[in-house]
Amino acid sequence: MRFLLAIAVAAASLLPLTALAQDRQQAPTLKVEIDGETVAIPTPFGYCDLDPAEPRDKLLIDGLDRLTRQDRVLRRLSPCDELKAWRADKARRDAVEVVQFLHAARLGDVDDDREEFLHHAVPGDAAGKAQVLKQAAQGFPSGLTEGDFSTIGLIERTERAAIQAQAAMARVNGDSQRLIAVTAITAVGPVPVIAQVLTPYEDGSELDWMLRDAHEHVDRLLSANGEDSQRFQGRAPRAQDPLPGDVATRKTRTPRERTPGFFDHNGGYIALGLVVGGALLIAIGMVAARRLRPAP
Question: 269 lies in which domain range?
């Protein structure tokens, strides 16, 4: 009995660290009801939800609300490290990257043919990635007023999504800010949905990583709602599969490289300490149990 008690004490001593690890886990998939349909909005790896109760988050939310117009906001997220820095730095003016999922009822009915819907929602020929990148590098569109979007170019249209690059002006934290957006229009069953990546405009080259991320967001959205994932060639991921591509693409984005934090530098030591510390506590418990065992 004393031995079991010692084991319980050792395990209890590890609970605070376990809670810390759980606190860093992904937020759950959000399910929303739209016109009688349930749509699952997944959490991209390394992203956290914007919280309207956070004053700094509210600045981003208010600015983006003026852009969505008649679209219903389903979910808004930012990279967790960027969002944490934005909340902490009250003097920071430039917005952080935001991914938002919108219900775009204004685009019309999907019916049973998503590909036809996409041609209707985003007409015209796709210019391709290289041409749109070239166009974006020529500078931010002139004459754009706050709250408005300007289309830079249609990058691609497939049977899954139509993806275009856009520029937008938004008032965030009292400043008029130039944003660049990759807007992916798709449909979950009969429900038209937009997955949109927005970040401050630098020189247009950011469209490269934004497009890769947009592909990931669309794939996650569709696979969360029962369609095959193209990341895994139509099969479910195995335990030994590498992490999805948005983890890799986030490492290449510029100009804001992720600053390594405490857990990046010390994660291995913490894990080793947990193992050694747990073993040591168990050993101490066993010795204590033997010494306290009553003589026969």
Answer: 1-31+262-296
